[in-house]
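Researcher: Sequence of SusD/RagB family nutrient-binding outer membrane lipoprotein follows. Predict its structure.
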Amino acid sequence: MKNLQNIAYKVLVILLVGFVVTSCEDTLEDVRENPNNVTSIDDAPLFANAARSLFNGTLDEGSYRFAGQYGHYYVAGSTARQPDQYTDGFDGNYNGIYNGMYSGVIKHIEEVLVLTSEPETENPVRHAIADVVAAMGFARITDGFGEVPYTEGGKGKTEDILTPKYDTQEFIYNDLIDRLSQSINVLKTADPAMGYPDSDPVFDNDLDRWVRMANSMRLRLAMRMRFVNPTLSQQVVALCLSEPLMEDNAHNAYMIETEGQGNAWYGRRTGFPSIKMSTMFIGQLEGTADPRLSVFVEKDGNGNYTGQKNGLNDEAFGQSDFASKSDMGIPLSSKDSKIFLMTASEIYFLRAEIALIYDNNPTDANNLYRMGIEASLEQWDIDAAEITSFLASPTATLTGSVDEQEEQLGTQMWIALTPNYYEGWTHIRRTGYPVIEQRTDPDLEKGATNGILPTRFLYSSFEMSSNGTNASEAINRQGANKIDTPIWWDKN
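Model: Prediction complete. Tokens:
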């Protein structure tokens, strides 16, 4: 009897061991398979999050503390004013700008690009749309820092690359243009059902508008190369002019932030430290009786438009009565104000520049210039009679030498880019217009650049310590890690 019990016990143990081993094998197989089981991941939320982050990135500290002041649109109060003095020592801010774009846009969009190219989840339409977002995100990063991780950038999760190499800005630009071209070719004849019918926060799955934005972005990049590679610039421009571009404010790329406090400029206008609009910006608008003045700038307590001068040293600033100056306009800085990424007015101004410089056609240049002004005025719902009056003013007609016409063009582009201040600063760096003179006035702070407009952000100490070999190679190619080292396309 005892032997029978022992036999039964042994059989039971064998069965249990077999069951456990089988279960462990199944579990181990699950563990081996799950990291690659992308079929259970929906790329739509990742895409929507990346697209929203791209728009909100136009409101980050790269715009608020740096570009908006470098572009002489406004002056910020308290310690946020320090970049306006062209000083340095903003290591944490540089790191935040850099990582914010990679973690907010690039990381998520890289996951989308992987998911939409895997055999189980392949979707060329979604992949093409996502590539447009990726191109715009990478363009923003490289335009701020110069050389950045690109071919290996943002791939820490998808490919386990933790110390990505840096690519030259020339390579990045050429590749971004190729990627945009491929996206345009796919989206022109794509089935919208394969896009993001319920998850597109930009164009609500309107593929025609995606094509127009992709091509307009390609045109922006082409004109960035005007002074460094004019031959390639003209070749890409010709391609862009053969495809649909943004031609109407219905094509504008904008988003309204509905979460948290809404548009970040609202908190900056109403909170601390405050923002006061620039003397240079107000002076340009007032001097030409520009009807956008009341949109972009609030009147001060006395009912006037009063600007704050950029670049004052601490003593002069203390005597400037900063608090009494004009605030940012409410249409730009309400909770539900539109966040603009790209507009038809910008594209008309680029086309006017092309007609003037590449085509030597001043008549077309003037017509496109006027269309750019009109599109900008209409974008801000300026009254029709005021639009007619401003278009009849001398400001709305290109005159003088080619250089003088370029300055007119550049100044109107600078105004029309409001409130995308990051692009405004980038535009000034590329064209030299409007002219930001080197500071010589004793009341103005010369900072770390001897009074010359800063041209880039710095690689942070964190980046230098965590990815130092690759960052150092970029510095050796590009030039010193200083805010007055020009980036690749900045040759004007």
